[in-house]
Specification:
alpha+beta, 4 strands, 57% helix, 11% strand, globular
Length: 270
């Protein structure tokens, strides 16, 4: 048998081989085969191996476990007053402030919005104080317009161009991070965009067996963002019984499952 692909993914080794009549795949964990699969399409087989590898993680508990954890903390789900008080309301307030002070159309076609955007970033704790400080540096510089305009471009549908423009504007301030580039599009369009806090999202992806855990990269690229949106779509489908209203609820669900400890009903995100 000829090995055609082999990679280390977390603590597991994934291998695809030609078998004569097709292809075979294997997940090796702690030196021992833990999963074996067969197929005719090596790319599809590799994707299945990635999913199997994620499910073999000791941290895996699937969407059922994620829903149980969320429900143990908020028995009334997204309708819980404590959920609204600690997770949703302040994000909605930031969204409403952004829409009132810098409507998306104004950000696309106008200038002079830096001070208002600073206030939008200060409305939440979604970014750490250090990250926020670097973004504020950008907003007080000559790169402010490009950053805001790039965010508006992304929110309007051109994700690749928007990410590129924001990253270029933020780079001189060491602020080209996923939290910075996803914040404004998320608040403008929580129906279609998502805020990314990498470590907690990777932790969640590992727990539910999604490839974001293995495919995430720090580089600001549309490919990584599309993988994030796939995680969001999958999560929306899996938690449909909880009736999430938008990606604000999905983002909060991911945060709560990963960051809250037993008995806690509030954990700051910064």
């Amino acid at each position: 048998m000829k090995t055609i692909r082999e990679e280390k993914v977390g603590k597991a080794t994934l291998r695809v081989v030609e078998t004569g009549g097709g292809y075979g795949g294997i997940v090796i964990l702690e030196g021992k085969p833990s999963v074996k699969v067969d197929g005719n399409d090596p790319d599809a087989l590799w994707a299945e191996l990635l999913s199997k590898a994620a499910a073999s993680s000791p941290n895996y508990f699937g969407y059922g476990g994620a829903i149980n954890r969320f429900s143990s903390l908020f028995p009334d789900g997204f309708a819980s007053s404590s959920y609204a008080d600690h997770e949703r309301n302040y994000k909605i307030e930031a969204k409403q402030f952004l829409e009132a002070s810098v409507p998306l159309e104004s950000a696309l076609n106008g200038t002079g919005h830096a001070d208002a955007i600073k206030s939008v970033f200060n409305k939440t704790n979604l970014l750490s104080p250090f990250e926020k400080m670097r973004v504020i540096d950008c907003l007080t510089s000559d790169q402010a317009y490009d950053f805001i305009h790039g965010a508006a471009i992304m929110a309007s549908g051109d994700t690749k161009a928007g990410l590129s423009k924001m990253a270029k504007a933020l780079k001189p301030h060491d602020a080209a991070k996923w939290t910075a580039v996803t914040y404004l599009p998320f608040l403008w369009r929580p129906d279609s965009h998502m805020f990314l806090k990498p470590e907690i999202t990777k932790d969640f992806a590992e727990r539910v067996g999604h490839s974001f855990f293995t495919d995430y990269e720090t580089a600001i690229t549309v490919d990584v963002y599309e993988i994030l949106l796939d995680l969001v779509r999958t999560t929306e489908q899996e938690i449909a019984s909880l009736n999430p209203q938008d990606h604000i609820d999905v983002q909060s669900f991911i945060w709560i499952v990963g960051a809250y400890k037993d008995g806690e009903t509030s954990v700051g995100e910064g």
